[in-house]
Amino acid sequence: MNTPVLTAHALTKRYGTHPALTEATLDIPAGRIVGLVGPNGAGKSTLLALAAGLIRPTSGHIEVLGRKPAADAEQLARVGFVAQDTPVYAGLSVADHLKLGEHLNPTWDKQFAADRIKQIGLDPAKQAGRLSGGQRAQLALTIAAAKRPELLIFDEPVAALDPLARRAFLQNLMEFVAEIDVSVILSSHLISDVERVCDHLIILAESRVQVAGEIDDLTAGHYRLVAPRGTLTDLPDGVDLIAADHTDRQTTLIVHNTNPTPLAISGAEPIGLEDMVLTYLHRAEGTTAPTLEETRA
Amino acid sequence: MIWLTWRQMRAQTLWTAGLVAAVAAYLLYLGTDIRGAYRTDITDCTARCDDAAHAFGDQFGSSLLMIGLLLLAGPALIGAFWGAPLITRELENGTHRLVWNQSVTRKRWLAVKLVVVGGVAVLFTGVLSLLLTWAASPYDKLIDSRFEPLTFAARDLAPFGYALLAFTLGLVVGVLARKTLVAMAVTLLVFVAFQLLMANVLRPHFAEPVTETIAWADANTVGQIDSFGTGPQGTGIQEYDISGAWVMSDYIVVHKGDGTEFTETDLDACDVQGDNPDDCMIAHDATFDVTYQPADRYWTFQRIELATAVGLAALLAGIAFWRIPRGLN
């Protein structure tokens, strides 16, 4: 399982002139639970649909598990995908959906599917259209997981769920991911979801990848620097400025240290995941890059 | 995939099968009835046979026409109600994102839908077409105008092609329009337009028609003059029938032996003489040109009609097969 789960190079998708995803370059190692965060409309669904092969890129390349997405039946069998709003056939029963999975997937794990349905407490005879949002998500998840893929992709699986159902769903997800040894990419606009379950993070905003990496590396590499105004005029090599806030008396910087050694600047303190994400999202919204010394008129 | 396709179409198929069975039962009854009446009115006829034949025609004409119309409308309805929603409903409910991520390629998914649902559509229409052809055959033999547009398109092979074409059209319009109601409306419009185009523009040119110069003396042995006289278009034959053939000319100018047109004055002169008008015409060496598709071209035309529809359906299916793997979001 050393093939990267997903590699993308300058991956771009445009709808007409509207950019949905711009020049995304990614390399996600196997065996991770990857969180894809960003505001609505950032391009999360586009990236995941490209990974699942539902749409084709306008330009650039993407490979999933070393191959073109949805290239053939074999490749489809390796990737499980649960779309946003977890679509199911409203007129078909839960049992029909399992049968569907069985007929359409040579690698279908019947026992696993039956056990999960029992465990979640779904009535096999119930029509899928009458399930609650949480139950529907569980059904969709079961179908995607029971084909025993190497990679599971979830597009906002918990967006429609209330906080309790969301927690239960993620808990359940964690459990069976450990059980069946699968890589996962899931998107969410809630950082807390991602923080709870993921070990790898991609921040997407304004159709661009802002930053991507292991969550531990990212949180360890981002610092907040607070210093009297005018004293921070230069940053060491390999330290990127992400955000700068200047008041009359002091300057606050958020920086990303890409060096392997810890940042040796006094007053540098690590920032939490949420602050880091928000900083990137905020930066993506801004039109001008942050400067060390803000010039004032 | 076949299981899922069947599971999704089960309700509509059973429902339609019920309708088809009802019409089929009626056709069996009608066919038997027609055969009985044909025997007594035509085969065993001894006196006033023309009247009996007329009565026979009147008795069954409208029933057969109604079923014929149903068979013409059937494919359009199949296109709108089976073809168009086949993909759009998946798109509207988002279920394509579920099914496209099972271990079945979209091409296979589409192929199974096309073959299974399209196959059932063709089967249903075909069964009705053959039954109607059987039921109507004594009537059609008597009336002897199988090229009549409403008859031609509702007998033998033509309905098979129409069903396949309408279904594929609906599917492809659905793929392009992505909205069920829009796709249904467009499918209906386009298909009806196609049927009209086929009957009025394309079918007459399936083969180069034959033009024959007929001497007046032979006029009623080669075919039959419906009416001859002076009308809004001038003096000429208003309608000429050749048994089983498709006469293209609906107003025919008559020429005299010297090559000039037979005019109203000539006609009046013939009338004044009071002789048998035909003798007068023959005395003028009157001839006229008739353009028509001979009766023995019927099966060639049926095959061309079928091939045209199947060819167009294949072309449309090609569009769907090209479009769907590229994604529809």
TrEMBL record, chain A:
- GO molecular function, a single term: ATP binding
The organism is Glycomyces buryatensis
Residue stretches making up the ABC transporter domain: 6-231
Q: What is this protein called?
A: ABC transporter ATP-binding protein
* Superkingdom as given in the UniProt entry: Bacteria
A Pfam family reported for this protein in Swiss-Prot or TrEMBL: ABC_tran
- Keyword annotations: ATP-binding, Nucleotide-binding, Transport
Kindly give the PANTHER family that the UniProt entry links to this protein: ABC TRANSPORTER ATP-BINDING PROTEIN ALBC-RELATED
From TrEMBL, chain B:
Task: Say yes or no: keyword Transmembrane present.
Answer: yes
**GO function term, MF aspect, one:** ABC-type transporter activity
UniProt KW keywords: Membrane, Transmembrane, Transmembrane helix
Q: Which GO terms describe its cellular component?
A: plasma membrane
Give the source species: Glycomyces buryatensis
Name the UniProt record assigns to this protein = Transmembrane transport protein
The record lists the membrane-crossing segments as 12-31, 64-88, 109-137, 157-176, 181-202, 306-324
